[in-house]
Amino acid sequence: MRFSKLRLTGFKSFVDPTDLIISDGLTGVVGPNGCGKSNLLEALRWVMGENRPKSMRGGGMEDVIFAGAHSRGARNFAEVSLQIDNTERLAPSGFNDSDNLEIVRRITRDVGSAYKANTKDVRARDVQMLFADASTGAHSPALVGQGQIAMLINAKPKARRRILEEAAGISGLYQRRHEAELKLKGTETNLLRVDDVIEQLAAQLAQLARQARQAQRYRDIGEQLRRAEGMLLYRRWREADDTRLAAEQVDRARVTQAAKAEAMARLGTEARAQAEEKLPALRDEEAIAAAVLQRLVVQRDALTAQEAQARQAIETLSNRILQLGRDIDRESGLNRDAGETMEQLEWEARELSKASQGHEDRLGEAVDRSRDASGVLQGHEGHLAQLTEDVARLAARHQSAQRLVEDHNRALMRAMGEGDRARTAVDEAKAALIRVEAEFEAAIEAEEETREAAELAEEALAAADEMRSETQARESDARAQRSEAEGELGALRAEVTALAKLVERDTAEGGQVLDELQVEPGFEKALGAALADDLRMPLVAVDGPSGWVDLPGYGRDLPMPEGSQPLARHVSGPVALGRRIAQIALVDGDTGPRLQAQLQPGQRLVSLEGDLWRWDGFRAWAEDAPSAAALRLEQLNRLEALKQEMERVGARAEGARAAHEVLVRKLEQVAQADQDARQARRAADQRVADSARTLSRAEANRNLAEGKLETLGIAVARHDEDAEAAQEHLSEAKEGLEDLGDLDSARIGVEDVKQAVEAARVTMLSYRSAHDELRREGEARTKRAQQVTKEVSGWKHRLDSAERRITELAERREASQEELEEANAVPFEIAETREELTEAIEDAEARKADASDALVGAETVLRDAVQTEREAERLASEAREARARAEALSEAARETVGHAAERIAEDQQVTPQQLLEQLDADPDDMPAAEVLEVEVNRHKRQRDALGAVNLRAEEDAREIQEEHDTLVSEKTDLEEAVKTLRNGIASLNREGRERLLTAFEQVNGSFSSLFRHLFGGGEASLVMVESDDPLDAGLEIMCQPPGKKLSTLSLLSGGEQTLTAMALIFAVFLANPAPICVLDEVDAPLDDANVTRFCDLLDEMCRQTDTRFLIITHHAVTMARMDRLFGVTMQEQGVSQLVSVDLKKAEAMVA
Description:
Elements lengths: L1 E8 L8 E4 L4 E5 L6 H11 L29 E9 L14 E9 L3 E6 L2 E3 L1 H10 L9 E2 L3 H7 L2 H12 L2 H185 L3 H148 L11 E2 L4 H8 L33 E2 L4 E2 L5 H5 L1 E3 L5 H4 L8 E3 L5 E3 L4 E2 L7 H111 L4 H166 L3 H8 L9 H17 L7 H63 L3 E7 L8 E7 L6 E2 L5 H18 L4 E5 L7 H17 L3 E5 L3 H5 L3 E9 L2 E8 H8 L1
Parallel strand pairs: 3-20, 3-21, 8-19, 12-13, 19-20
Antiparallel strand pairs: 1-2, 1-4, 4-5, 5-6, 6-7, 9-11, 10-12, 13-14, 14-15, 16-17, 17-18, 21-22
């Protein structure tokens, strides 16, 4: 199959329909970064069945649909079609109907993907298998995207094995094998399930047999239970009916008693009503007397309160008069104190006026002295500031010069120290170089030794592998013989067990003569036809039950017809059968009818087939009445033969088992030896790799030591130059420090000026303090004079108001005297009123006592009447309750009778009388209900003790037996399917292993050749690691570019790794060329020379294979070597377009 055209519509940035023509040779795709070149590779992967959004650089598969741009709306679908030339008809059978194939994949938003092949809907798996069988596909190593070279370089060995699978053309093998393994697993699961179901059905069949017997027992108990329940129901109905009659008689007596009690209750009610009519008038009189008494008592209590209030008012007025007198005396004393205070304040005002004279002159002189001292202080401070600034500037220059000297001194010491350390390091590096060179030589010798050990281990492994294969074949043959013998033994054992159970089941409990007989094989039917069921009878004594009794033989046996032979020659058994067997002869089926007429009384003729001719003319054919005794005799003989055969087969199986176990142990020993050899080979390979790594590490250490020695020599020279420069700078800094002035003398001058400034400041502060003191004294005198004037005015105002208050207090005292006289008269008036109220209260108390006595007598009469009424009501209520109980009992008895009748009708569907007729029993002879209930419960317990009973056990057993037979047949089919699947998987593994080894040899040779072609020499090879099985092994790449040591791919430089990976990819092409190879910017790490080699290799691949190459590149050299170029542009933001030019045609036109 050849890919011819790729069409994209709405796929990522290719919104318009775009065709990419894929022709023979080299097709280049160029364009700036981000224009959509890699989208062509992703479209090719996508149409071949890629289902991982991450591989499409998206978060979901719908991200491949054009999402819209500035001037374009988003599309609702994306479609990619791939046209394939199938003129050679190499496609699988389902796609091989036409010369051209068109595979279309279309995805619609919120719907999903759909595939079509030549307009027919197909599954994604069909498309994936189509490309897998063509050694390509979405994950083919021939589709090399950006970064995949690095992924191949960094991949684990087992991941690299995929390129060998592509070369061998077995990419689809793993998928088919996985499908077969899934089917096998499912079939084995189904087989286990069928075994479980068969076991369950067998257990169910045994259980159903028990359930059938249990169901019959259940029916018997049920019949007994129904009769007992019928008798119990009738007995309870009869007892309920007797109870109803007795209850109705009691009910009539209770009705008469209730009527008499109600008449007595009515008389009691009338007497209580008459007593109640007299009570209201007596109660009103008692209430009026009590109200009058209460009102008088309240008035008396009010007089007591008024008297207390009057005495309180007298006390209050007396206290007020005393307080007013004291207030008048206090005001008079305050007036005398105010006069004395005013005289003292006027004297203080005169003294303050004298002290204020001449204060302003003293204050002016103090201000002048303070101002003069401030001027002197400012002059000294200005001079001090100037001197301080000069000294600070000089100190800064001194400090800077000193720091410069220290810095240059430290630089000098550092340069000298670094120089010393560098020289020491040089000495150490020289010693290390000598040591590393010795290690390098030792590593070379160790590598040679390990390679020789690896070759020896390889030879030992080959010998062990050959021995293991031979022993494994012998063990397989022994295992097959053992399995065959054990299978035959198991079948015989199962038949013997089943036949023994059958014979044991048919053995009678008392014994039967049949079990004592021994018949030669083939004569069972003859003996069974002759004796029939008589063989079932046991051997008994003379006075015992029915059976065979020992009798002496005849003195002379009657002769048998000529042409017959006695059956006794072929039968041996008890003596009791001697007479009977002596009268039986064997004949052919054709001779019997002719000889029947010659038989004497008691004689019989039988054939080997079981035909019978009796002396009395009776004849029975074997096919009309097969004998059970004959069948049992055959079973006994068959059982004995099977036991002998089982012993013979068991001995053979034991011998096969012993031989197999010997070979198994030998195989284990050989396998262990093989495993040890493989482990030794792996250890040798590991030592080879370790020695190679050690050699590389030693060589790297030697190069590093040489470089380090050279670097340290340069460092020593540099540090010496730094020390000389630091010495010169230090001398210059010291000279500059000496040229500066004396800093100490300048600081002493500053201290002298500071002392003069401090003296001037002390003088100024003393003058200013004297001025402030004078000012404060003047302000204090002025403030005190103002306070004195204010206090004098206040005392004058207070004298005027005091006279007025004394007058007011005298007037209030006179008014209080008058109120006191009036209050003293109130207690006498209250005492007269209290005497009058006391007499009225005594009269009211006497009236209330008379009314209370009359009321108590009437209430006593009423209580007696109520008590009599209540007693009558109680008796009437008890009579009514007794009547109600009697009615309830009668009604309950009637309901009980009705319920009993309904229960009979519900359970038995008959009336009580009909139930009695069905039971056919005398009611008087029936047991009591308690006895019947015990019997019913006993039957119920017996029924419940049976537990759950399956009444359909026999029908269920027939259904389950049919299902059991069906499943046994299905199990046989499943076992055949498992055997077929195992053979298929083994065949796939064997074919894949052979094809993979063949491809490995071919790819390894091509890879070594292409490596030498790309590198201009060197060696390279492929090695299978991590497993002895090629299908599970990993692929390691061993490389040795010209002038370098042998190493793995990961130890090469980036360009060397890229060339090596491309050599491996092209080696796969030579082994099994893919229809198409896409290389996405794989030449990016290469320089111009290697790009030229890369392009030469591409031309060589085009000549040797039919693979069509699609190269995405930015390199000008690669572009120049292409047969045609497609340019991807993005003139419109977010929208890619494709333009093309055929370079060969253009070159021809120019020529």
